[in-house]
């Protein structure tokens, strides 16, 4: 068996954005992720690496457990963005 | 429309990088235990706690992190069939009977009776470990769905009160704390990969399991007196999204049906795997469950409006229009109770049919304009708040991606209407050959001990045939754990078969020999193509036999060229090999039933007659050394429910009676 290594994955989705200014590198997101899509940063206290973005389930466990608001943001897949509008814009709407 | 939220700031990585975790694939850890639990979701955690409550030493192997893993790892918003809660007006016997008859017999009488009988006990366990099951903050005081004495909140049928609204986001951490407090040894990031059997023989007593760590590659050998399978149902057989694997299916990506595959290899008996349904919500073509406007499940019984803001009528089972929101939560005149969760969603039995909006086709005929929208603003304030807030805030895929994201993007539930993209439960449109296991699918056959056909092997949760939700997983988990511990207390540890351990290690590490070849994604795509072509909406012996040949060809050629560069890849490769095994299991199950069945959503071109009476039985399949063995069990093989339950659980009944 050769030396283990990894190559960044090409994915259709860009599930999480980590703000390195806010992230304290606690790796709680690495701990909870059901798909294990992060790798801890080799430099301690720095933000984890989003290594397997395509494996994300988009449930947001990482965001939910993050102790630093805004350090990690979930980006829903483009194709599953939904539509809403004020009811008052409906033609026959009467409150 | 939703706003663009953030942009990627993943650190710049060029070329390849060295693996950050210590590599241990030259290391084997051997563990001895009384009860070994495979899988740490809801059923696995409760199996571990059930076994520990009987004094057994327990080890649990979990592929992800027990704290947050499994189908309900990130939450759940309601708990079905808690028939023994003090407010329930329906008995466990009535509810199980309704579930069995609602599915025309094709249901697991044993596991659902356990769910009805013990589900509420498991909720109390969760409360003991700081899970929230009551409205202790009095947020919903005075609501129609609240019992002020117990502070329980109910969903669906407010008259009969057997389904509870719960703060399920607190549940997985509570299970984790409970297992820890009960001294269960939790081994995370370790994928159970194969069962060990006496003498290494298929069909013999199970003596433990082997596993691989997905970060370090360490090989783990567990020797156990009893083993409990607590893994998910198979996924990604017909559906796979390359580049977005994680959303290929409804259940999370760590749920791939590894238990089915290892069981099939070891000679475990399965039933009902010929049943699959047209996909309902998966992949990029659909929206995540409960993230769009609808009036089911989390969103029951939200007001729906058409594109011009006109309300779509709600009707009872007789078509009588329900004038108020409150009536949507009540049985029809003369009806004992109605079933939503746990009921048959596609062809409900009149006896248990609950309120619904009129069908989309009917609404369009009457002049309502598409698309339709959920109108939370038209709901009474307290009903709106319990859906958009409490329920959406606790369901597994809605807290962050829906409640938080939509709110930040400006969605106002009092003012905005949210579009619906499919009728009924669906949140997308699928082709007939795009199938999945959903709503009481097939799985492992069990007896009244939740034991499989193999000695030493028990099963709980989604791996069982006709499983559905978290209450079922938790209740069957605890029950299987107790019975596994009983067995372990009566039997000696078996010797492992060294040749079997060695061949399992060689099998599991084989993809590490290559760092180039065929990717696991390519093999998964190929499996879904074969399943759609040969095991799609219609089946026949000829097509299925050709499909089995295609799967075999894939296994001998492309699957033999799968590669893994690190332990993470190795787990993904092993999952896809399990998916390939599950595809074979499903094709064999389809071959075994030589009749069409409406209830099983199983259409045979070569046996077109629907539900001939001689086929009203459970058809079973299992592997033997000389091929696949098919068999049958009568549709009511489990016998009298309370009588059998009480005979198998005298000690539990005694302990839980004050």
Please provide a written account of the structure:
- The complex is a heterodimer of chains A (95) and B (658).
- Chain A is an alpha+beta fold and 95 residues long.
- Chain A has helices at residues 28-32, 61-65; strands spanning 5-6, 16-18, 38-39, 49-50, 72-74, 84-86.
- Chain A is elongated, with a radius of gyration of 18 Å.
- The mean pLDDT of chain A is 90.
- With 658 residues, chain B is of the alpha+beta class.
- Chain B has a domain at 513-611: Fumarate reductase/succinate dehydrogenase flavoprotein-like, C-terminal domain (Methane Monooxygenase Hydroxylase, Chain G, domain 1).
- Chain B contains 15 helices and 25 strands.
- In chain B, α1 (42-53) packs parallel to α4 and α11 packs antiparallel against α12 (541-556).
- Chain B starts with 16 loop residues before the first strand and ends with a helix.
- At the A-B interface, β1, β4, α2 and β6 of A face β1, α8, β18 and α13 of B.
- β1 of chain A pairs antiparallel with β1 of chain B.
Distance between the termini of chain A: 69 Å
User: Biggest sheet of chain A: strands, sense, closure?
Assistant: 2 strands, antiparallel
Biggest contact: A-B, 66 and 82 residues
Q: What does the radius of gyration of chain B come to?
A: 24 Å
Which sheet architecture does the biggest sheet of chain B show? 7 strands, mixed
Portion of residues within helices of chain A: 10-25%
CATH superfamily of the domain at 513-611 in chain B: Fumarate reductase/succinate dehydrogenase flavoprotein-like, C-terminal domain
One letter per element, helices H and strands E, the order of chain A comes to: EEHEEHEE
Overall helicity of chain B:
25-40%
User: Reading side by side through the largest sheet of chain A, how are the strands ordered?
Assistant: 2-5
Number of beta strands of chain A: 6
Number of helices of chain B: 15
Low-confidence stretches of chain A: none
Strand proportion of chain A: 15-25%
- Gyration radius of chain A (Cα, Å) is 18 Å
The CATH topology of the domain at 16-75 in chain A, please?
Answer: Alpha-Beta Plaits
Beta content of chain B comes to 15-25%
**Quaternary assembly:** heterodimer
Number of strands of chain B: 25
């Amino acid at each position: 068996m050769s030396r283990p290594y990894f190559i960044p994955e090409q994915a259709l989705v860009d599930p999480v954005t980590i703000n390195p200014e806010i992230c304290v590198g606690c790796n709680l997101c690495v701990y909870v992720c059901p798909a294990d899509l992060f790798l801890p940063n080799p430099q301690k206290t720095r933000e984890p690496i989003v290594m397997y973005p395509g494996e994300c389930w988009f449930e947001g466990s990482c965001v939910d457990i993050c102790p630093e608001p805004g350090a990690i943001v979930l980006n829903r897949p483009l194709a599953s963005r939904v539509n809403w509008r004020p009811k008052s814009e409906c033609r026959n709407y009467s409150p | 429309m939703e706003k663009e939220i953030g942009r990627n700031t993943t650190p710049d990585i060029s070329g390849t990088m060295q693996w950050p975790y210590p590599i241990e694939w030259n290391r084997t850890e051997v563990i001895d235990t009384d009860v070994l639990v495979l899988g740490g979701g809801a059923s696995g955690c409760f199996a571990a706690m059930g076994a520990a409550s009987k004094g057994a030493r327990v080890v649990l192997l979990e592929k992800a992190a027990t704290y947050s893993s499994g189908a309900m790892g990130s939450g759940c918003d309601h708990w079905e069939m808690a028939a023994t809660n003090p407010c329930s007006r329906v008995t466990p016997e009535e509810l199980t009977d309704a579930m069995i008859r609602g599915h025309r017999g094709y249901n697991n009488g044993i596991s659902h009776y356990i769910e009805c009988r013990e589900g509420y006990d498991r909720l109390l366990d969760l409360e003991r470990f700081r899970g929230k099951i009551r409205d202790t903050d009095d947020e919903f005081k005075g609501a129609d769905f609240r019992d002020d004495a117990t502070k329980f909140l109910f969903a669906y049928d407010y008259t009969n009160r057997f389904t509870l609204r719960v703060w399920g986001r607190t549940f997985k951490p509570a299970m984790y704390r409970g297992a820890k407090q009960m001294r269960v040894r939790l081994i995370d990031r370790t994928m159970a990969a194969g069962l060990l059997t006496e003498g290494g023989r298929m069909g013999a007593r199970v003596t433990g399991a082997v596993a691989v760590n997905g970060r370090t590659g360490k090989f783990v050998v567990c020797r156990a007196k009893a083993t409990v399978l607590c893994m998910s149902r198979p996924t990604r057989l017909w559906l796979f999204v390359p580049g977005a694997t994680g959303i290929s299916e409804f259940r999370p990506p760590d749920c791939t049906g590894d238990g089915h595959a290892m069981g099939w290899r070891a000679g475990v008996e399965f039933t009902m795997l010929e049943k699959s349904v047209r996909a309902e919500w998966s992949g990029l073509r659909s929206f995540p469950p409960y993230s769009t406007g609808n009036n089911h499940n989390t969103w029951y019984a939200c007001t729906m409006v058409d594109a011009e803001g006109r309300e779509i009528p709600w009707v009872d089972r007789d078509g009588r229009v329900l004038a108020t929101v409150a009536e949507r939560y009540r049985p029809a005149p003369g009806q004992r109770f109605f079933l939503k969760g746990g009921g048959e969603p596609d062809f409900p039995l009149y006896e248990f049919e609950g309120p619904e909006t009129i069908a989309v086709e009917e609404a369009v005929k009457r002049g309502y304009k598409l698309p339709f929208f959920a109108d939370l603003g038209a709901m009474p304030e307290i009903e709106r708040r319990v859906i958009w807030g409490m329920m959406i805030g606790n369901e597994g895929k809605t807290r962050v991606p829906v409640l938080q994201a939509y709110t930040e993007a400006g969605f106002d539930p009092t003012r905005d209407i949210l579009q619906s993209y499919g009728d009924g439960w669906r949140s997308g449109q699928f082709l007939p050959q795009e199938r999945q296991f959903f709503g009481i699918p097939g799985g492992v056959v069990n007896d009244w001990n939740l034991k499989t056909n193999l000695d030493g092997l028990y099963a709980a949760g989604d791996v069982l045939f006709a499983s559905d939700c978290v209450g079922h997983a938790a209740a069957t988990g605890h029950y299987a754990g107790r019975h596994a511990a009983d067995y372990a207390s009566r039997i000696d540890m078996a010797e492992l078969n060294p040749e079997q351990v060695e061949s399992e290690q060689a099998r599991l590490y084989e993809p590490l020999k290559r760092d180039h070849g065929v990717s696991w994604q390519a093999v998964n795509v190929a499996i879904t193509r074969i399943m759609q072509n040969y095991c799609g909406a219609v089946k026949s012996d000829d097509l299925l036999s050709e499909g089995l040949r295609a799967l075999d060809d894939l296994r001998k050629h492309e699957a033999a060229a799968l590669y893994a560069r690190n332990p993470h890849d190795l787990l993904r490769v092993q999952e896809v090999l399990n998916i390939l095994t599950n595809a074979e299991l499903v094709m064999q199950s389809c071959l075994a039933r030589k009749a069409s069945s409406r209830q099983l959503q199983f259409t045979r071109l070569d046996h077109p007659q629907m539900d001939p009476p001689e086929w009203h039985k459970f058809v079973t399949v299992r592997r033997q050394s000389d091929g696949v063995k098919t068999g049958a069990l009568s549709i009511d093989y489990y016998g009298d429910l309370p009588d059998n339950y009480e005979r198998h659980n005298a000690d539990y009944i005694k302990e839980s009676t004050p």
